[in-house]
Write a structure and sequence with these properties.
alpha+beta; 4 helices; 33% helix
Length: 179
């Protein structure tokens, strides 16, 4: 696992760049402040729902045919997307996505956030350890004209999660985050 992490990170970076290029296709300009506030609110609500374990409440916030590129995995469709985010319930029940920065530019929202929780169930081939995890992630949401997420690119410090779960990197306490 550790030996392939460097090449996996390189692949993820390349895929992220490709994903951003795909997401940058021309969209209608939204100079409207109300639209910007709506998509900022939807983006923040998405992470609040996730952190509360209300994964199904995120379904109405995304387009029916959403395209997701999440840490090297492609998912298409609202139902498939909601099922994908539910998978975190087993290894990290109560996992928190704590927003650090939310940026809005036209119909794109960029979020820098911290993933915080405790490893209480199997994650990949790693059995539960009870160890705390605290890693950064970034997401880029492309929104449609109604403020629904139609494309998502997620990049998470998976290598840090793995090191923390294995005990190679200790997390004595979760980072305090303020937006």
């Amino acid at each position: 696992f550790a030996g392939t992490m460097g090449s996996t990170c390189t692949q993820l970076r390349a895929q992220a760049i490709q994903g951003v290029k795909k997401m940058s296709h021309a969209m209608p300009q939204h100079a409207d402040g109300d639209y910007a506030e709506k998509i900022r609110h939807n983006a923040a609500t998405f992470h609040k729902n996730f952190s509360a374990g209300d994964f199904d409440r995120n379904g109405p916030l995304v387009h029916e045919k959403i395209y997701v590129h999440s840490n090297g995995v492609i998912v298409n469709g609202r139902h498939e997307f909601v099922q994908r985010i539910k998978r975190y319930e087993t290894p990290f029940p109560g996992l928190q996505l704590v927003d650090r920065i939310i940026l809005v530019d036209d119909n794109v929202v960029g979020l820098l956030y911290v993933v915080q929780g405790k490893h209480l169930g199997p994650f990949g081939n790693m059995a539960a350890t009870g160890r705390k995890v605290n890693a950064y992630a970034v997401e880029f949401f492309t929104m449609d004209e109604h403020g629904l997420m139609k494309k998502l690119l997620t990049i998470t410090q998976l290598h840090r999660l793995a090191r923390q779960i294995k005990g190679e990197e200790a997390v004595p306490s979760h980072e305090a985050v303020e937006l």
